[in-house]
Amino acid sequence: MRRFKMLVFSEPFEGREDEFNAWYTGRHLDDICALQGFTAAQRFSIQSVSMGTALNKYLAIYDVETDDPDWVIENMFAHRDTPAMPISPAFNLEATTVMLYEELTGVVHTKNRD
To answer: Is the pTM for the entire model greater than 0.70?
Structure first.
């Protein structure tokens, strides 16, 4: 089975950050992970930019395992704004970027530094 990371850079509408975060963490991560192909999810907020320009304040990283990544993404978008995956009115979809990356290597860990 092929392994992927789906990165979602997102923003709330101005003044609706608390509502956005409550929905995203309390509902949306579980809704996505309930879909076939998704195995885990985690959210992050930006702390600094060392190089380049920050696109969004929030990032969600989803683990995906599938031999048909196009179908998994199509299925996810087919469920968007349905009872299985309602979208919060605080979520600014126009400021969102979704990217799927295929895993090329395993995780490299720090070697013992005795």
So the answer is: yes
